[in-house]
Amino acid sequence: PYSTKEPVFRCLETQYKHIWRSSEYPFDGTVEEALKNALVRCENTNKKLLIIEDGGYAVPMLHSKYEDKVSLCFGAVEQTTHGIWRDEEVEDLKIPIIDVARSKIKCELESPLIGKAIVMNIDLLLSKIGISLTNKKILLIGFGNVGSKIAEWLRRFGGRVWVYDTQDDKLNTARQERFEIIKNIHEGVKDKQIIIGATGKKSFGFNELTAITNDVYFINATSKLMEMDYEELNALAAQSENISGVGRKYKLHTGYTIYLLANGFPVNFFDPESQSVPDLEIQFIPTLLFNAAIYLLEKRIGENGISSIPEDIQKDLRDTYQKFRS
Question: How many helices (DSSP H) and strands (DSSP E) are in the chain?
Fold first, then answer.
């Protein structure tokens, strides 16, 4: 979603010659065009391609559509968990990949910032229609690095939070942090007023949609257009209408209404007034990505597949970041 913002695109256009832009999600067609062009340039200039990626688009495509040109790629750096999941689905990875997504420093420093931003942006959108998080019954689906921080901030905003996760250890952590836990999501959606998907996957489908027992506000808290099964939602909707600046309202055949905040897009990137994380706070992420790329280029990776970024690189960056913050 970042590159679809007009100011971002205009800035990139003044700095770089080869820019591809997609106005619609998913971006597969645009990514394929960019990847094909890059591989041709590598062939013509006798250079290697290094992929720095957010979302796991190029690496699976390289293996499925350009397998004969994989040797032109030096490797890849991936910064999202969803992207790593997509890369792991490739049966035989023929390039080395640095996993920045699950690095300790990213989890420690980025997750609290994103969790806070998500809740503030949810509160911003809800306030436009006179709704407050205070005393609302909220179901949070997913208690990972970001989800756990969302839960903390929902509590600070006065929300009553129930947590559902498919992993028992995550539920145990939620319980230790004094959140109510849900082991059956179909039961868990009943009587909830706000539902937040923070799994990085499709978490709310037909069974969940038909199990709600009242009107619900649904929020996608990931960085991609997912969490809600939009085909099922449209199939179950008797009618829908836009709520300007807030999202879309779906009246279901069951008689209940789903308010899809931000039209199901990542809530941090929807409203012009919203900001995912202040720019100065998040600068360690591109620094981490480029440090991972340098590590990869120096050929310190001995084999193909997914590897973690070394702890010494993370420590140096953490120390520098903390000095910067102080």
Answer: 12, 12
| Domain containing residue 235: CATH number | 3.40.50.720
Tell me the two tokens of residue 289: 């990505």
Full residue range of the structural domain in which residue 246 is found: 111-269
Residue 1 has pLDDT above 60, yes or no: no
Q: Which of 292, 300, 313, 315 is nearest to 77 (CA)?
A: 292
How does pLDDT run across 100-130, given as a tens digit for each residue?
999 999 999 999 999 999 999 999 999 999 9
Residue 302 pLDDT more than 70? Answer: no
Token output for 216: 């619900």
- The Cα 284–Cα 290 span in angstroms is 10
Contact indicator for 266, 196 with CB cutoff of 8 Å:
no
Residue ranges of alpha helices (H) inside the chain are: 6-15, 28-45, 58-65, 81-88, 104-127, 145-156, 168-176, 185-188, 206-209, 230-236, 284-297, 311-325
d(C-alpha 197, C-alpha 40), whole Å: 40
Cα separation, 323 vs 221, whole angstroms: 30
Count Cβ atoms within 10 A of the Cβ of residue 226 and give its class: 0-12 exposed, 13-18 middle, 19 or more buried: buried
- Quickly count: other Cβ atoms within 10 Å of residue 124's Cβ: 16
- Is 189 within 8 Å of 211 (Cβ atoms)? yes
The single-letter DSSP state of residue 268 is: G
pLDDT over threshold 50, residue 204: yes
Q: CATH number of the domain that 98 lies in?
A: 3.40.50.1480
Write the DSSP string, 35-68. HHHHHHHHHHHT--EEEEESSS-HHHHHHHH-GG
Whole-number Å distance between alpha carbons of 169 and 202: 21
Tokens of 31: 């990514």
Do 252 and 118 sit in the same domain of this protein? Answer: yes
- The answer to whether the beta carbons of residues 33 and 27 sit under 8 Å apart is no
